[in-house]
Write a structure and sequence with these properties.
CATH topology of the largest domain: Aspartate Aminotransferase, domain 2
Oligomer: single chain
Number of domains: 2
Structural class: alpha/beta
Largest sheet: 7 strands, mixed
Strand content: 5-15%
Radius of gyration: 22 Å
Bound molecules: pyridoxal-5'-phosphate
Order of helices and strands: EHHEHEHEHEHEEEHHHEEHEHHEHH
CATH architecture of the largest domain: 3-Layer(aba) Sandwich
Shape: globular
Length: about 400
């Protein structure tokens, strides 16, 4: 076995469960196994624990506990928001506005609705991945029922002007959903101020386990039930609540909010150090995503003339665990829809690398990683026909 140090740099894909979270989950898994719907004492204890967790999540978002609905993941939250509004408002209209850089949980939910007679407008983004709020306004029609634009992008980290987009939706009385799966726990979200009606979050992006998420539904928003079943979640989402995971989710979110100022400073320092050093040390490299309006932990590069997959394999061999795009598309040979949407040609979109820092990241790993990248990119260019052609042309 190789003894190379493993460095995990893919926190946008998922995060480990932090010890404080495990500590609050384990006693519930072991002892408090009651079903919150049971009338006897054990059930009522579970119900109390569940409702306390809901209160905690609501506080993190400055929302009301009755507006928080627990789900199984971010994908379920996105599907519920989009398909639930589409169904509830089908008599009003069948037009939905989204962007070209949404996560597949949103894009594929919209595609499914397109197959049922809904019309979807996919807005362009600029070279940094930003949606223009005025383009949202221009796309609104009398039959528009929903706008769904993500808060922060999972590949390039760009943070959208959610407040402005939400205001435009409010002015036009259109429901606004935002996928905040990458944003929650990383940047502040104040739902008493933000004009957002529906918001998706997922625990495994902020050190809670995989398989637990939430959908915020602002009071009064019309939305159909997504999971038919029992009367759980105020009759809107059937299924016995996953109490231990929900408690872990609430604890992780609470810790992320309490530590946000400190962790933002630490992550931004790592991110900016890496960006500066990579752009300096590796020629023909670009940073994808907005330089400042980006998640504190995200760096995304395109290295011209080479394949992202090869970079990942060689980095893995040298101990660095990164991604070339979203976790769900890695393994596919299609270039990222996000990189194509920000205007990268196919060959540049193929040579991309996403590095996302987290709690375990250390400043000393950056120089080692830059050294590794310099060697890897040079080696891959040596065997690249695109590089050879470029050198000939530019002799
Ligand atoms: N939305 C965004 C922006 C994401 O990054 C992800 C996961 O990567 C999801 C939705 C899906 O969340 P989950 O993995 O909890 O289903």
């Amino acid at each position: 076995m190789s003894t190379v140090k493993r460095v995990y740099l893919d926190h946008a894909a998922t995060t480990p469960v932090r010890p404080e979270v495990l500590d609050v989950m384990l006693p519930i898994l072991k002892d408090q196994f009651g079903n919150p719907s049971s009338f006897y004492h054990r059930g009522q204890v579970a119900k109390k624990i569940l409702e306390e967790a809901r209160e905690t999540v609501a506080n993190c978002l400055n929302a009301h506990a009755s507006e928080i609905y627990f789900t199984s993941c971010g994908t379920e939250s996105d599907n519920w928001a989009i398909k639930g509004v589409a169904k509830a408002l089908e008599k009003k209209g069948k037009h939905i506005i989204t962007s070209k850089i949404e996560h597949h949980a949103v894009l594929h939910a919209c595609e499914a609705l397109a197959g049922q007679g809904y019309e979807i407008t996919y807005l362009d983004v600029d070279g940094d991945g930003l949606v223009d709020p005025e383009a949202v306004r221009a796309a609104i029609r009398p039959d528009t029922i929903l706008v769904t634009i993500m808060m922060a992008n999972n590949e390039i980290g760009t943070i959208q002007p959610i407040e402005k987009i939400g205001q435009i939706c409010r002015e036009n009385k259109i429901i606004f959903h935002t996928d905040a799966v990458q944003a929650a726990g990383a940047i502040p979200i104040d739902l008493s101020q933000l004009p957002v009606d529906l918001l998706s979050i997922s625990g495994h992006k902020f050190y809670a386990p995989k398989g637990v998420g939430a959908l915020y539904i602002r009071k009064g928003v019309r939305i159909a039930t997504f999971m038919d079943g029992g009367a759980q979640e105020r009759n809107r989402r059937g299924g016995t609540e996953n109490v231990p995971y929900i408690v872990g989710f609430a604890k992780a979110f609470e810790l992320a909010m309490a530590e946000m100022a400190e962790s933002t400073t630490a992550l931004q320092a790592l991110r900016d150090d890496l960006i500066e050093k990579v752009l300096k040390a590796v020629p023909y490299t670009r940073l994808n995503g907005h330089r400042t309006l980006r998640l504190p932990n995200n760096a995304n590069f395109s290295f011209e003339f080479i394949e992202g997959e090869s970079i990942l394999i060689m980095l893995d061999y040298m101990g660095f665990e990164c991604s070339s795009g979203s976790a769900c598309t890695s393994g596919s040979l299609d270039p990222s829809h996000v990189l194509l949407a920000i205007g990268l040609p196919h060959e540049k979109a193929h040579g991309s690398l996403r590095v996302t820092f987290g709690k375990s990241s250390e400043a000393e790993d950056i120089d080692r990683m830059v050294d590794a990248l310099v060697k890897i990119v040079a080696r891959l260019r040596e065997i690249s026909p695109l590089w050879e052609a470029f050198l000939k042309e530019n002799k």
